[in-house]
Write a structure and sequence with these properties.
The complex is a heterodimer.
Chain A (H helix, E strand, L loop, with lengths): L3 E7 L2 E10 L3 H15 L4 E12 L1 H16 L3 E5 L3 H9 L7 E3 L2 H10 L1
Parallel strand pairs in A: 2-3, 3-4, 4-5
Antiparallel strand pairs in A: 1-2
Chain B lengths: L5 E8 L5 H14 L4 H22 L7 E9 L2 E7 L26 H8 L2 E7 L3 E9 L23
Helix pairs in contact in B: 1-2, 2-3
The chains are: A alpha/beta, B alpha+beta.
Chain lengths: 116, 161
């Protein structure tokens, strides 16, 4: 199962519900394309809901970093929602947990974009 | 090497399409060796990262090249060998992904995760025979079946992490 993503708008925030695998190859390519598409549309406040992401590898982590940098460079913000324990642990080990703004409540996550 | 070890071997073509099957096998072998779910995930990811390295970087996804994967379950450890037909790399020269300057790098975390998750990691590059990554995860005493008291060190292994 590769990556699946559904995009919805909540106030000024684009929420991307992701499920499946973010791994080298198809999963990473799909995610890269999706982020580029959102930036091209002018959607610069992105909240990635990773609650149903079953597997992420070092390339997937790299793709999250790449998305974070791309959105930040456009003056926007990329935040993460609903990390599984595995993704949470990987971000901790790689010291990226402090780089990303991570939330487990969607309403609060959306509200946080207006404050930043 | 322990002659009484249980050995599972696979030869893979240099394509990412079988990765989910490789991960499934790694999970099953880990479970058979008595590891819990957290260790299972760590072993699975370590195998995933090394096999992907072998396919994508070592063999450059060249369909004429193979990746050889071996699991050895012995009394005190699970030992995993991943060998490709590439020119190899020096583990000590991989930049530290936790360094401030590297934190937002897109790549360079694969072997770091392997070293974090496995008890020992070694890279052996030999001219003409490709590169072999050897990883060891020690079995906790309470999870080991009682098959005797073998406790040998495999030849040529050293702790690098």
């Amino acid at each position: 199962m590769s990556l699946k993503a559904t995009v919805r708008q909540v106030d000024s925030v684009t929420v991307v519900d992701m499920s499946g695998r973010i791994t080298l190859g198809e999963g990473c390519s799909q995610m890269r394309g999706l982020i580029r598409e959102q930036i091209a549309k002018g959607n610069k406040n992105l909240l990635l809901n990773l609650g149903d992401v079953t597997y992420i590898d070092s390339s997937g982590i790299g793709e999250l970093v790449s998305a974070f940098t791309a959105v930040s460079n456009q003056g926007g913000a990329l935040k993460l929602l609903n990390l599984t324990k595995k993704v949470h642990d990987l971000l901790q080990i790689t010291k990226l947990y402090t780089v990303f703004d991570v939330h487990d409540d969607e309403a609060k996550a959306v509200a946080s974009f207006n404050r930043s | 090497m322990d002659p009484a070890a249980s050995v599972i071997e696979l030869t893979l073509e240099s394509s990412l399409k079988h990765m989910e099957m490789v991960e499934e096998i790694a999970r099953r072998v880990s479970k058979a060796a008595g590891f819990g779910s957290e260790d299972e995930f760590q072993i699975e990811l370590a195998v995933h990262e090394t096999v992907i390295n072998a396919i994508a970087h070592g063999n450059q996804e060249d369909p004429s090249k193979k990746v050889w994967l071996q699991f050895r379950i012995s009394d005190d450890r699970l030992e995993i060998h991943v060998r490709d037909q590439g020119s190899g790399f020096d583990l000590s020269k991989v930049p530290d992904p936790l360094a401030e300057a590297n934190l937002l790098n897109i790549s360079g975390r694969g072997m770091f995760l392997v070293q974090q998750f496995m008890d020992e990691t070694q890279v052996v590059t030999s001219g003409g025979r490709g590169t072999e990554v050897i990883m060891i995860k020690r079995r906790k005493p309470q999870t080991q079946p009682h098959q005797g008291g073998k406790d040998r060190e495999p030849e040529g292994h050293r702790k690098t992490s």
